[in-house]
DNA sequence: GATAAATAAAGAATATAATTCTTTATAAAT
DNA sequence: ATTTATAAAGAATTATATTCTTTATTTATC
Protein backbone atom coordinates (compact mmCIF):
# COMPACT_ATOMS: atom_id res chain seq x y z
CA UNK A 1 0.00 0.00 0.00
CA UNK A 2 2.23 2.83 -1.22
CA UNK A 3 1.31 6.26 -2.56
CA UNK A 4 0.52 4.88 -6.03
CA UNK A 5 -1.91 2.32 -4.62
CA UNK A 6 -3.58 5.05 -2.62
CA UNK A 7 -3.87 7.25 -5.69
CA UNK A 8 -5.41 4.34 -7.59
CA UNK A 9 -7.95 3.73 -4.81
CA UNK A 10 -8.91 7.39 -4.79
CA UNK A 11 -9.49 7.40 -8.55
CA UNK A 12 -11.47 4.15 -8.50
CA UNK A 13 -13.61 5.29 -5.58
CA UNK A 14 -14.58 8.37 -7.54
CA UNK A 15 -15.09 6.57 -10.79
CA UNK A 16 -15.26 2.80 -10.93
CA UNK A 17 -15.40 2.89 -14.71
CA UNK A 18 -12.11 4.73 -15.19
CA UNK A 19 -9.94 2.74 -17.57
CA UNK A 20 -6.58 1.25 -16.68
CA UNK A 21 -5.20 3.39 -19.48
CA UNK A 22 -6.52 6.60 -17.99
CA UNK A 23 -5.25 5.79 -14.50
CA UNK A 24 -1.88 5.06 -16.10
CA UNK A 25 -1.84 8.44 -17.87
CA UNK A 26 -2.79 10.32 -14.73
CA UNK A 27 -0.12 8.63 -12.65
CA UNK A 28 2.53 8.73 -15.39
CA UNK A 29 2.87 4.99 -15.72
CA UNK A 30 1.99 2.40 -18.34
CA UNK A 31 -1.01 0.09 -18.26
CA UNK A 32 0.85 -3.00 -17.02
CA UNK A 33 1.85 -1.82 -13.55
CA UNK A 34 -1.54 -0.19 -13.05
CA UNK A 35 -3.33 -3.32 -14.18
CA UNK A 36 -1.30 -5.43 -11.79
CA UNK A 37 -1.75 -3.05 -8.89
CA UNK A 38 -5.51 -2.91 -9.38
CA UNK A 39 -5.70 -6.70 -9.49
CA UNK A 40 -3.62 -6.89 -6.33
CA UNK A 41 -5.89 -4.38 -4.56
CA UNK A 42 -8.86 -6.51 -5.58
CA UNK A 43 -7.17 -9.77 -4.62
CA UNK A 44 -6.08 -8.52 -1.21
CA UNK A 45 -9.52 -7.16 -0.38
CA UNK A 46 -8.86 -3.42 -0.46
CA UNK A 47 -11.43 -3.20 -3.23
CA UNK A 48 -14.37 -5.36 -2.23
CA UNK A 49 -16.62 -4.68 -5.21
CA UNK A 50 -17.73 -2.32 -7.92
CA UNK A 51 -21.22 -0.90 -7.94
CA UNK A 52 -23.47 1.28 -10.03
CA UNK A 53 -24.92 4.09 -7.94
CA UNK A 54 -28.64 4.57 -8.55
CA UNK A 55 -30.44 7.87 -7.93
CA UNK A 56 -32.96 7.14 -5.19
CA UNK A 57 -35.31 9.95 -6.20
CA UNK A 58 -35.40 8.70 -9.78
CA UNK A 59 -36.63 5.34 -8.54
CA UNK A 60 -39.20 7.06 -6.36
CA UNK A 61 -37.64 6.65 -2.95
CA UNK A 62 -38.39 10.15 -1.72
CA UNK A 63 -37.88 9.71 2.00
CA UNK A 64 -34.88 8.85 4.14
CA UNK A 65 -35.58 8.17 7.80
CA UNK A 66 -33.17 7.39 10.59
CA UNK A 67 -34.73 5.42 13.36
CA UNK A 68 -33.32 5.02 16.85
CA UNK A 69 -34.51 1.77 18.34
CA UNK A 70 -34.39 0.76 21.98
CA UNK A 71 -35.06 -2.84 22.96
CA UNK A 72 -36.62 -4.21 26.13
CA UNK A 73 -34.42 -7.20 26.62
CA UNK A 74 -30.73 -7.28 25.85
CA UNK A 75 -29.69 -10.89 26.21
CA UNK A 76 -27.74 -12.25 23.22
CA UNK A 77 -30.70 -14.28 21.96
CA UNK A 78 -32.95 -11.24 21.84
CA UNK A 79 -30.37 -9.15 20.05
CA UNK A 80 -29.81 -11.91 17.48
CA UNK A 81 -33.55 -12.25 16.97
CA UNK A 82 -33.98 -8.52 16.38
CA UNK A 83 -31.02 -8.40 14.00
CA UNK A 84 -32.36 -11.31 12.02
CA UNK A 85 -35.83 -9.77 11.79
CA UNK A 86 -34.59 -6.35 10.73
CA UNK A 87 -32.55 -7.87 7.91
CA UNK A 88 -35.71 -9.09 6.21
CA UNK A 89 -37.28 -5.70 5.70
CA UNK A 90 -36.36 -4.28 2.29
CA UNK A 91 -37.09 -0.75 3.56
CA UNK A 92 -34.14 -1.03 5.95
CA UNK A 93 -30.99 -0.25 3.99
CA UNK A 94 -28.65 0.04 6.96
CA UNK A 95 -28.68 -1.12 10.56
CA UNK A 96 -26.05 -0.57 13.22
CA UNK A 97 -25.78 -1.92 16.73
CA UNK A 98 -24.52 1.08 18.64
CA UNK A 99 -23.26 2.01 22.06
CA UNK A 100 -24.88 5.25 23.12
CA UNK A 101 -28.28 6.63 23.92
CA UNK A 102 -30.10 3.92 21.91
CA UNK A 103 -29.48 0.31 20.96
CA UNK A 104 -29.82 0.32 17.18
CA UNK A 105 -29.71 2.95 14.49
CA UNK A 106 -31.53 2.02 11.32
CA UNK A 107 -31.73 3.84 8.01
CA UNK A 108 -34.88 3.51 5.99
CA UNK A 109 -35.80 4.37 2.41
CA UNK A 110 -39.48 4.89 1.67
CA UNK A 111 -41.47 6.08 -1.32
CA UNK A 112 -43.58 8.38 0.82
CA UNK A 113 -44.89 8.95 4.32
CA UNK A 114 -47.65 6.41 3.91
CA UNK A 115 -45.17 3.70 3.10
CA UNK A 116 -43.09 4.65 6.11
CA UNK A 117 -46.12 4.62 8.36
CA UNK A 118 -46.97 1.14 7.08
CA UNK A 119 -43.43 0.00 7.79
CA UNK A 120 -43.49 1.43 11.29
CA UNK A 121 -46.94 0.20 12.27
CA UNK A 122 -47.04 -3.16 10.57
CA UNK A 123 -43.43 -4.22 10.48
CA UNK A 124 -41.10 -2.56 12.98
CA UNK A 125 -43.54 -1.96 15.82
CA UNK A 126 -44.89 -5.47 15.52
CA UNK A 127 -41.55 -7.04 16.42
CA UNK A 128 -41.64 -8.31 20.00
CA UNK A 129 -38.95 -6.85 22.19
CA UNK A 130 -39.19 -3.28 20.78
CA UNK A 131 -39.30 -0.76 23.59
CA UNK A 132 -38.95 2.64 21.94
CA UNK A 133 -38.63 4.00 18.40
CA UNK A 134 -37.55 7.55 17.69
CA UNK A 135 -37.68 8.68 14.03
CA UNK A 136 -35.61 11.44 12.42
CA UNK A 137 -36.72 12.53 8.97
CA UNK A 138 -34.03 13.68 6.59
CA UNK A 139 -34.78 17.11 5.19
CA UNK A 140 -31.55 17.66 3.30
CA UNK A 141 -28.55 15.51 2.57
CA UNK A 142 -25.80 17.95 3.46
CA UNK A 143 -22.91 15.62 2.73
CA UNK A 144 -22.91 12.15 1.24
CA UNK A 145 -19.42 10.95 0.55
CA UNK A 146 -19.52 7.63 -1.18
CA UNK A 147 -15.76 7.31 -0.92
CA UNK A 148 -13.58 6.84 2.12
CA UNK A 149 -11.26 9.59 3.33
CA UNK A 150 -7.91 7.94 2.56
CA UNK B 1 -38.51 2.09 -16.76
CA UNK B 2 -39.95 -1.35 -17.43
CA UNK B 3 -39.16 -4.69 -15.82
CA UNK B 4 -36.04 -5.16 -17.95
CA UNK B 5 -34.62 -1.78 -16.90
CA UNK B 6 -35.30 -2.65 -13.29
CA UNK B 7 -33.56 -6.00 -13.68
CA UNK B 8 -30.57 -4.23 -15.25
CA UNK B 9 -30.40 -1.74 -12.36
CA UNK B 10 -30.50 -4.56 -9.84
CA UNK B 11 -27.64 -6.37 -11.54
CA UNK B 12 -25.52 -3.22 -11.92
CA UNK B 13 -26.11 -2.21 -8.30
CA UNK B 14 -24.81 -5.56 -7.17
CA UNK B 15 -21.90 -5.64 -9.59
CA UNK B 16 -20.89 -2.54 -11.50
CA UNK B 17 -18.36 -4.55 -13.47
CA UNK B 18 -20.84 -7.02 -14.92
CA UNK B 19 -20.44 -7.10 -18.69
CA UNK B 20 -23.15 -6.12 -21.15
CA UNK B 21 -22.78 -9.63 -22.50
CA UNK B 22 -23.48 -11.24 -19.15
CA UNK B 23 -26.49 -9.04 -18.45
CA UNK B 24 -27.75 -10.00 -21.90
CA UNK B 25 -27.36 -13.70 -21.17
CA UNK B 26 -29.12 -13.45 -17.82
CA UNK B 27 -32.05 -11.56 -19.27
CA UNK B 28 -32.23 -13.64 -22.45
CA UNK B 29 -31.46 -10.77 -24.79
CA UNK B 30 -28.54 -9.79 -27.01
CA UNK B 31 -25.94 -7.18 -26.24
CA UNK B 32 -27.42 -4.38 -28.35
CA UNK B 33 -30.67 -3.80 -26.46
CA UNK B 34 -28.86 -4.14 -23.12
CA UNK B 35 -26.16 -1.72 -24.22
CA UNK B 36 -28.74 0.82 -25.30
CA UNK B 37 -30.82 0.43 -22.17
CA UNK B 38 -27.78 0.88 -19.93
CA UNK B 39 -26.76 4.01 -21.85
CA UNK B 40 -30.30 5.33 -21.50
CA UNK B 41 -30.34 4.67 -17.75
CA UNK B 42 -27.05 6.58 -17.50
CA UNK B 43 -28.21 9.40 -19.78
CA UNK B 44 -31.49 9.88 -17.92
CA UNK B 45 -29.79 9.91 -14.52
CA UNK B 46 -31.04 6.65 -13.07
CA UNK B 47 -27.42 5.57 -12.81
CA UNK B 48 -25.44 8.51 -11.47
CA UNK B 49 -22.02 6.90 -11.31
CA UNK B 50 -19.95 3.78 -10.88
CA UNK B 51 -17.71 3.34 -7.89
CA UNK B 52 -15.17 0.95 -6.45
CA UNK B 53 -16.10 0.00 -2.89
CA UNK B 54 -13.10 0.09 -0.57
CA UNK B 55 -12.90 -1.93 2.65
CA UNK B 56 -12.69 0.62 5.43
CA UNK B 57 -10.94 -1.72 7.86
CA UNK B 58 -8.28 -2.51 5.28
CA UNK B 59 -7.45 1.18 5.04
CA UNK B 60 -7.38 1.43 8.81
CA UNK B 61 -10.65 3.20 9.47
CA UNK B 62 -11.64 1.09 12.44
CA UNK B 63 -14.37 3.26 13.95
CA UNK B 64 -17.75 4.43 12.76
CA UNK B 65 -19.46 7.02 14.92
CA UNK B 66 -22.87 8.59 14.49
CA UNK B 67 -23.12 11.99 16.04
CA UNK B 68 -26.33 13.80 16.85
CA UNK B 69 -25.75 17.52 16.80
CA UNK B 70 -27.99 20.21 18.23
CA UNK B 71 -27.36 23.85 17.34
CA UNK B 72 -28.00 26.92 19.43
CA UNK B 73 -29.29 29.20 16.72
CA UNK B 74 -31.47 28.06 13.86
CA UNK B 75 -31.67 31.04 11.53
CA UNK B 76 -30.84 30.20 7.91
CA UNK B 77 -27.43 31.87 8.06
CA UNK B 78 -26.36 29.79 11.02
CA UNK B 79 -27.54 26.57 9.42
CA UNK B 80 -25.69 27.41 6.21
CA UNK B 81 -22.56 28.24 8.16
CA UNK B 82 -22.64 24.95 10.04
CA UNK B 83 -23.28 22.98 6.86
CA UNK B 84 -20.38 24.67 5.13
CA UNK B 85 -18.03 24.01 8.05
CA UNK B 86 -18.98 20.37 8.41
CA UNK B 87 -18.30 19.74 4.72
CA UNK B 88 -14.62 20.57 5.20
CA UNK B 89 -13.89 17.81 7.69
CA UNK B 90 -12.62 14.69 5.93
CA UNK B 91 -13.69 12.58 8.94
CA UNK B 92 -17.33 13.41 8.20
CA UNK B 93 -18.51 11.07 5.47
CA UNK B 94 -22.21 11.84 5.75
CA UNK B 95 -24.28 14.67 7.17
CA UNK B 96 -28.05 15.02 7.23
CA UNK B 97 -30.25 17.88 8.31
CA UNK B 98 -33.05 16.11 10.11
CA UNK B 99 -36.39 16.83 11.68
CA UNK B 100 -36.60 15.03 14.97
CA UNK B 101 -34.97 15.02 18.35
CA UNK B 102 -31.74 16.63 17.02
CA UNK B 103 -30.77 18.99 14.22
CA UNK B 104 -28.08 17.12 12.35
CA UNK B 105 -26.98 13.54 12.11
CA UNK B 106 -23.38 13.08 11.05
CA UNK B 107 -21.48 9.91 10.29
CA UNK B 108 -17.78 9.82 11.04
CA UNK B 109 -14.97 7.46 10.10
CA UNK B 110 -11.91 7.44 12.34
CA UNK B 111 -8.78 5.32 12.57
CA UNK B 112 -9.14 4.97 16.34
CA UNK B 113 -10.59 6.58 19.42
CA UNK B 114 -7.78 9.08 19.68
CA UNK B 115 -8.45 10.40 16.22
CA UNK B 116 -12.14 10.71 17.04
CA UNK B 117 -11.40 12.52 20.25
CA UNK B 118 -9.19 14.95 18.31
CA UNK B 119 -11.98 15.49 15.81
CA UNK B 120 -14.54 16.11 18.53
CA UNK B 121 -12.41 18.40 20.68
CA UNK B 122 -10.50 20.32 18.05
CA UNK B 123 -12.84 20.38 15.12
CA UNK B 124 -16.52 19.79 15.86
CA UNK B 125 -16.74 21.27 19.33
CA UNK B 126 -14.82 24.32 18.25
CA UNK B 127 -17.48 25.36 15.76
CA UNK B 128 -19.47 28.28 17.15
CA UNK B 129 -23.19 27.61 17.40
CA UNK B 130 -22.85 23.97 18.59
CA UNK B 131 -25.15 23.35 21.53
CA UNK B 132 -25.04 19.59 22.12
CA UNK B 133 -23.27 16.60 20.64
CA UNK B 134 -24.34 13.05 21.39
CA UNK B 135 -22.11 10.26 20.02
CA UNK B 136 -23.15 6.70 19.20
CA UNK B 137 -20.33 4.26 18.55
CA UNK B 138 -21.00 1.50 16.07
CA UNK B 139 -20.27 -1.91 17.55
CA UNK B 140 -21.52 -4.03 14.68
CA UNK B 141 -22.76 -3.27 11.20
CA UNK B 142 -25.88 -5.42 11.17
CA UNK B 143 -27.01 -4.50 7.68
CA UNK B 144 -25.29 -2.41 5.06
CA UNK B 145 -27.13 -2.50 1.78
CA UNK B 146 -25.20 -0.61 -0.82
CA UNK B 147 -28.04 -1.04 -3.27
CA UNK B 148 -31.51 0.48 -3.26
CA UNK B 149 -34.58 -1.67 -2.68
CA UNK B 150 -36.16 -1.40 -6.13
C1' DG C 1 -58.57 -5.74 -41.04
C1' DA C 2 -54.69 -3.74 -43.83
C1' DT C 3 -51.02 -0.43 -43.88
C1' DA C 4 -47.74 2.73 -41.99
C1' DA C 5 -44.89 4.39 -38.25
C1' DA C 6 -42.40 3.63 -34.22
C1' DT C 7 -39.99 0.79 -31.09
C1' DA C 8 -37.15 -2.92 -29.73
C1' DA C 9 -34.16 -6.49 -30.64
C1' DA C 10 -30.90 -9.22 -33.59
C1' DG C 11 -26.63 -9.87 -36.17
C1' DA C 12 -22.38 -8.45 -38.07
C1' DA C 13 -18.43 -5.38 -38.09
C1' DT C 14 -15.32 -2.22 -35.86
C1' DA C 15 -13.00 0.18 -32.16
C1' DT C 16 -11.32 0.18 -27.68
C1' DA C 17 -9.80 -1.69 -23.53
C1' DA C 18 -8.31 -5.57 -20.73
C1' DT C 19 -5.18 -9.10 -20.25
C1' DT C 20 -1.11 -11.85 -21.05
C1' DC C 21 3.60 -12.59 -22.20
C1' DT C 22 8.33 -11.27 -22.85
C1' DT C 23 11.86 -7.99 -22.14
C1' DT C 24 14.17 -4.24 -19.73
C1' DA C 25 15.25 -1.32 -15.97
C1' DT C 26 15.85 -0.40 -11.05
C1' DA C 27 16.73 -1.34 -6.35
C1' DA C 28 18.25 -4.31 -2.54
C1' DA C 29 21.18 -7.92 -0.80
C1' DT C 30 25.20 -10.83 -0.63
C1' DA D 1 30.75 -6.48 -8.49
C1' DT D 2 27.24 -10.02 -8.96
C1' DT D 3 22.99 -11.99 -7.92
C1' DT D 4 18.14 -11.72 -6.73
C1' DA D 5 13.87 -9.60 -6.47
C1' DT D 6 10.72 -6.07 -7.78
C1' DA D 7 8.61 -2.96 -10.80
C1' DA D 8 7.78 -1.13 -15.06
C1' DA D 9 7.87 -1.09 -20.24
C1' DG D 10 6.50 -2.77 -24.80
C1' DA D 11 4.29 -5.80 -27.88
C1' DA D 12 0.73 -9.19 -28.88
C1' DT D 13 -3.56 -11.29 -27.94
C1' DT D 14 -8.15 -11.68 -26.24
C1' DA D 15 -12.37 -9.91 -24.79
C1' DT D 16 -15.63 -6.40 -24.49
C1' DA D 17 -17.83 -2.17 -25.80
C1' DT D 18 -19.67 0.30 -29.40
C1' DT D 19 -21.56 1.26 -33.90
C1' DC D 20 -24.16 0.26 -37.96
C1' DT D 21 -27.50 -2.27 -40.67
C1' DT D 22 -31.24 -5.41 -40.82
C1' DT D 23 -35.25 -7.76 -38.97
C1' DA D 24 -39.06 -8.46 -35.96
C1' DT D 25 -42.75 -6.71 -33.03
C1' DT D 26 -45.88 -3.58 -31.44
C1' DT D 27 -48.89 0.48 -31.81
C1' DA D 28 -51.51 3.74 -34.25
C1' DT D 29 -54.23 5.22 -38.25
C1' DC D 30 -57.08 4.86 -42.20
UniProtKB/TrEMBL annotation, chains A, B:
GO BP annotations listed: regulation of DNA-templated transcription; response to amino acid
Keywords, sorted A to Z: DNA-binding, Transcription, Transcription regulation
Residues of the HTH asnC-type domain: 1-62
Gene3D superfamilies cross-referenced by the UniProt entry: 3.30.70.920, Winged helix-like DNA-binding domain superfamily/Winged helix DNA-binding domain (1.10.10.10)
InterPro entries, alphabetized: ArsR-like_HTH, AsnC-type_HTH_dom, Dimeric_a/b-barrel, Tscrpt_reg_AsnC-like, Tscrpt_reg_AsnC/Lrp_C, Tscrpt_reg_HTH_AsnC-type_CS, WH-like_DNA-bd_sf, WH_DNA-bd_sf
One annotated GO molecular function: sequence-specific DNA binding
SUPFAM superfamilies: Dimeric alpha+beta barrel, Winged helix' DNA-binding domain
PROSITE patterns referenced in this protein's UniProt entry, alphabetically: HTH_ASNC_1, HTH_ASNC_2
Protein name: Lrp/AsnC family leucine-responsive transcriptional regulator/Lrp/AsnC family transcriptional regulator
Amino acid sequence: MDATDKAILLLLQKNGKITIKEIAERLNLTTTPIFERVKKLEREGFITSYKAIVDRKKVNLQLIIFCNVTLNLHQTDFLKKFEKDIQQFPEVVECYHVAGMFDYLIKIYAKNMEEYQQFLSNKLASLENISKVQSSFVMTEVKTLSHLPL
